[in-house]
Amino acid sequence: MSKKKGKGSLIVLSGPSGVGKGTICKELKKQRKHLWLSVSMTTRKPRPNEQDGVDYYFISKEEFEEKIKNHELLEYAQVHNHDYYGTPKEKIARHINDGDDVILEIDIEGALQVKENHPEALFIFIMPPSMEELINRLIQRGTESKEKIVKRFRKAYQEINEVTKYNYVVINDQLDKAVYKVNAILTAERSRVDRMEDILLNTKAEAMHELLVEKDLINEPFQL
Known about the structure:
Order of helices and strands: EEHEEEHEEHEHEHHEHEH
CATH class: Alpha Beta
Strand order of the largest sheet: 3-8-2-9-10
Helix content: 40-55%
Radius of gyration: 23 Å
Largest sheet: 5 strands, parallel
Number of strands: 11
Structural class: alpha/beta
Distance between the termini: 18 Å
């Protein structure tokens, strides 16, 4: 019989700001039992209603730099306001070893860092249906100034140029369709031949295999 390997997969999901990555991840979590959404670590201060360990792990700059020194981060970056953001390794490794698939919702820079050290990971890029729709979504969020929206829009063009470095691209024109497509990708990846191992345990097929190896079937008949 076939038995799946015990380890889960590392999945990196990226895309421009405002494309709907976070919403897709939350919907996937509802639909897939063995899926864990990685929580990033940051040195910035919590915003209203943000919870430590849920939205981010909030730590000091000194603690973050100590983790960099000790190679405890899968990827990290320091943004323009000098705050650090990164992904801690320990919890990810534990969940993967327990058989859970782990999703990292991170930016393109972080994804490329992960790919350099973990090329076996699954990389999915979420694309907006159009750049016009993307800027409309950024405006509708109502959380940023016009200057920041323009800056994010310009960055989105640069990020989309990196799509060829990903395994899959999914256009988020309708949320339910985008979630369905990502779900299908994850299901297909679970069935890849290189993620399966053939183990014959206590079956007639196993016994037959042993006899085929050990006996001269032309001159020596056998019985199961």
